Amino acid sequence: MNKKTVRDIEVKGKKVIVRCDFNVPMDKEGNITDDRRIVGALPTINYLIENGAKVILMSHLGRPKEGYDAKYSLKPVAQRLSQLLGKEVLLAEDKEVVGENAVKLAGDMKEGDVVLLENVRFITTETKNDMEFAKKLASLADIFVNDAFGTAHRAHSSTAGIASYIPSVAGFLIEKEISIMGKALENPERPFVAILGGAKVSDKIGVINNLLEKVDRLVIGGGMAYTFLKAQGIKIGNSLVEEDKVEYAKEMLDKANKKGVKIYLPVDHIVAKEFKADAAWEVSKTEIPEGFMGLDIGPESVKLFEEAVSDAKTVIWNGPMGVFEMPAFANGTKKVAEALSKVNGTTIIGGGDSAAAVEQLGYADKMTHISTGGGASLEFLEGLELPGIAALNNK
Ligand code: AMP
């Protein structure tokens, strides 16, 4: 990685402001129902504490629309963090985030102390990369550390703008994300296989185009597969299709052919007449009859996709193989997760639905890396520069 990390700078006695992703799910009473994002931030926070920094943390939580809203306060996160770190984390309770309390707490800090600012999205212009707000955040500290990969594809005051004012480096989470995904894209062990699924071709156009330059095999499942099948002249009944992307799908199939990339598309389908969890379903070979829609890949496709990854040395997976939220149509996604858990090589799950599926099925510890950012990892796989990473200092 060509960006500086916390290891490359002296942090002792310095005030270090860290952008974390504490956007954790909570129930109606404000209890955190899954603290993995907080746990994920601990290596960077502990490193800073152990090395004598004064640690100021910041994050967004949810989408407060009109400024301060107690419902979106980071108070529960401060409490959970205190438990996890075994030391008090003080919340700077300012409705304007950088207010009297934040300034006072930051001013009084000793080495190893930890302060958490309020939800940065209480400032509505945070997501517009408001430079005034960025400057206020920067004024609290000597060094900025970005460790929130999930928002690194957005130029916000707390992810990008702040880096204009103070030296800025990556935390361990971001370092891990870009070194593992970066190596896969730049210097993969082969065979290198990408598996793409999910609803829309249009969301993944850039990813498909970029990955065709890199992979040996591209597996396409989920709703997006039907646009490709249609491009091949295969009947797809009432399945999800993006008519205006059929031409693009043809171009991509041609590109794959020219590049020698083998494309795997479903050869059979679990079909139903209705998009409903309890719809009667059947297996349809090759073509889908009128009146039916494909909601999952069929058993032969599962076998084919398993073969595609069986000898792979690098696999990247993004997007479910079917409507996995409905148990009747979750088999393809489950089987792909299982196949990946057996791969003898690097396996990277690109966040979002596929990460959720892998975690639910208990395969998380079998994967090399599960990205903490769905949108960010897609943009990374697209070959785009992420503003929250581009803004950090080079080595
Ligand atoms: P994405 O956000 O693009 O990764 O798409 C995820 C969504 O795609 C999930 O909610 C799935 O239910 C949906 N999906 C996957 N396969 C199909 C399909 N065959 N038909 C309709 N929706 C699908």
Description:
By secondary structure, the chain is of the alpha/beta class. The protein folds into 2 domains: 6-173, Phosphoglycerate kinase, N-terminal domain (Rossmann fold, 3-Layer(aba) Sandwich); 181-381, Phosphoglycerate kinase, N-terminal domain (Rossmann fold), CATH 3.40.50. It has 13 helices and 15 strands. A 6-stranded parallel sheet has the order 3-4-2-1-5-6, with helices on both faces. Helix 11 (352-360) links the parallel strand 14 and strand 15. The chain is elongated. The model has no long low-confidence stretch (mean pLDDT 96). The chain binds adenosine monophosphate (AMP). The site of adenosine monophosphate has 16 residues, from strand 12 and helix 11. It is found in: Cytoplasm. Belongs to the phosphoglycerate kinase family. Keywords: ATP-binding, Cytoplasm, Glycolysis, Kinase, Nucleotide-binding, Transferase. Pathway: Carbohydrate degradation; glycolysis; pyruvate from D-glyceraldehyde 3-phosphate: step 2/5. Substrate binds at residues 21-23, 37, 60-63, 121, 154.
